[in-house]
Design goal:
By secondary structure, the chain is of the alpha/beta class. It is built from 14 helices and 13 strands. Strand 5, helix 7 (149-161) and strand 6 form a beta-alpha-beta unit. The protein has 2 domains: 3-9 and 251-337, Aspartate Aminotransferase, domain 1 (Alpha-Beta Complex), CATH 3.90.1150; 15-247, Type I PLP-dependent aspartate aminotransferase-like (Major domain) (Aspartate Aminotransferase, domain 2). The structure holds pyridoxal-5'-phosphate.
Length: 338
């Protein structure tokens, strides 16, 4: 048994998903002639109550396009210091958009309207213009923490008042929605743009969708082409996304339950210093000095279990579509035997 808990991106398409891909009707999407891509974009937009969608190769691209669309050269955006857009997108905020980031130390990666208000620059010649706020839900670095809807609504209200745009890095927004019990359309109402990953917990092999108003998506489409993300017969990939939206959302609760069980096991072990509270499918924990992270990873690798180093003495495990109850049993067993 090979168990890969490094990320929820490691899933392979199921047979049924592959069959949907195989029979997709395709065309040249740069000419807007791929009906399956259009179907995915429309479907995702409608789910969130947004006007339009844009299918892109990755979540990095959807985020970076959104930042470029919402800002001008020399502007400042506000995000949490742990944000994916700042830490894991290769410095793209600066290199793609010529924008700088104002980082906030949020609470488990989450910002509040009050925190943001204090960081909006006044209108002086010598200050960068604040134009955009970016939230992440669930927050990857914080162990998959979930925003409360009211907290987001307060931020939205502030952004409207201050004429700021509000973008959501919703790589795992469906994990948040399943966990928090708010609806997809309630989330859709809060943001000017949303990036949704299809290749994380939803189990598609490739792709993210960017959602927003018609004018925003028109601009985003042009930027996607400039970034090199205009794809041709992309319907084969889009059909996997459609299949994922139809079949893989409700089951995310199984991933959450399995993550919770890993948390419970970890809490009973003497080499664990701390486990971040598990809310969704991400388990982040700190080791005592009994093991270095490299030793810990190596020990588990001997039993064919892969996990990632996620900082100083810190490990991350992510449950997903290809992580079964049998694998959960084996993982618990091996963790207990260390
Ligand atoms: C995975 C991820 C993304 C996008 O990553 P890609 O690998 O480029 O698709 C964006 N934000 C968060 C929080 C993520 O976890």
């Amino acid at each position: 048994m090979y168990i890969d808990l490094r990320s929820d991106t490691v899933t392979k398409p199921t047979k049924a998903m592959l069959e949907a891909m195989y029979s997709a009707k395709v065309g040249d999407d740069v000419f807007e002639e791929d009906e399956t891509v259009i179907q995915l974009e429309t479907k995702a937009a409608q789910l969130f109550g947004m006007e339009a969608g844009l299918f892109c190769p990755s979540g990095t691209m959807t985020n970076q396009i959104a930042i470029r669309c919402h800002t001008q050269l020399g502007d400042e955006l506000i995000c949490d210091e742990t944000a994916h857009i700042y830490n894991y997108e290769g410095g793209g905020i600066a290199s793609n958009s010529g924008v700088q980031a104002r980082l906030i130390k949020g609470d488990r990666g989450q910002l509040t309207a009050t925190m943001i208000k204090d960081c909006i620059n006044a209108d002086y010649d010598w200050l960068a213009k604040t134009t955009l706020v970016c939230l992440e839900n669930t927050v990857n670095k914080a162990g998959g923490s979930v925003y409360a809807l009211q907290q987001i609504a307060d931020i939205k209200q502030l952004c409207e008042k201050e004429h700021l745009k509000l973008h959501l890095d919703g790589a795992r927004i469906f994990n948040a929605i399943i966990q928090a019990n708010y609806s997809v359309s309630e989330i859709g109402k809060q943001f000017h743009s949303i990036s949704v990953c299809l290749s994380k917990g939803l189990g598609a092999p490739v792709g993210s969708v960017l959602l927003g108003a018609n004018t925003f998506i028109k601009k985003a489409r042009k930027i996607r082409k400039v970034f090199g993300g205009g794809m041709r017969q992309a319907g084969y990939l889009a059909s996997a996304g459609i299949y994922a939206l139809d079949n893989h959302i409700a089951r995310l609760k199984d991933d959450h339950e399995r993550a919770k069980q890993i948390e419970n096991t970890l809490l009973s072990l003497n080499y664990i210093e701390q486990v971040l509270p598990v809310e969704t499918n991400i388990v982040v924990f700190k080791l005592t000095d009994k093991y270095t992270t490299d030793e810990f990873v190596e020990q588990l690798a001997k039993h064919h279990i892969k996990v990632s180093v996620f900082g100083k003495q810190t490990i991350r495990m992510v449950t997903h579509l290809d992580f079964t109850d049998d694998m959960l049993g084996e993982t618990k067993k091996q963790l207990q035997s260390l």
